[in-house]
């Protein structure tokens, strides 16, 4: 096992069924350094306080942290549609999403160290069946450093 100074912490959070107060307090309390939006689209009216432009302002003003939107970390629209329409199973979704991350070569393109203290954001309330968990686990699996994943719920 590597020593703790090599430890990378990746956070995940979903905004559904969270009040703005709870959402921003979770980020502050956990000392998140950067919010990384991993949704395909971050401009839906259903997003409420988590709409991309607003969220960038809110996290800077309320938490003093930066905001990035990285669509390379999102599933394809086709994959998401097939999952929502129950045309594929969760294991099939995992397999396809993992292949997508590999094809996009996200580890080489982005690395992992720069995301230490970052929080991956999507809409799902629970990380169990969400691509934010799969992304964090993929990064952990492909990291030479020790990675700790913390789901903010």
TrEMBL record:
It comes from the Bacteria. Pfam families: DUF488 (PF04343). InterPro entries: DUF488. PANTHER family: BLR5642 PROTEIN. This is DUF488 domain-containing protein. It comes from Pseudoprevotella muciniphila.
């Amino acid at each position: 096992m590597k020593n703790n100074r090599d430890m990378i912490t990746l956070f995940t959070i979903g905004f559904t069924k969270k009040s703005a107060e709870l959402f921003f307090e979770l980020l502050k309390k956990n000392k998140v350094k950067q919010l990384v939006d991993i949704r395909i689209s971050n401009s839906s009216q259903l997003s409420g306080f988590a709409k991309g432009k607003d969220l960038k302002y809110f996290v800077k003003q309320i938490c003093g942290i930066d905001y990035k939107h990285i669509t390379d970390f999102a599933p394809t629209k086709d994959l998401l549609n097939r999952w929502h329409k129950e045309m594929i199973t969760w294991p099939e979704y995992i397999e396809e999403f993992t292949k997508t991350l590999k094809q996009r070569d996200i580890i080489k393109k982005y690395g992992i160290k720069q995301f230490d203290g970052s929080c991956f954001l999507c809409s799902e309330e629970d990380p169990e069946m969400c691509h934010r968990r799969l992304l964090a686990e993929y990064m952990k699996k492909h990291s030479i450093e020790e990675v700790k994943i913390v789901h903010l719920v």
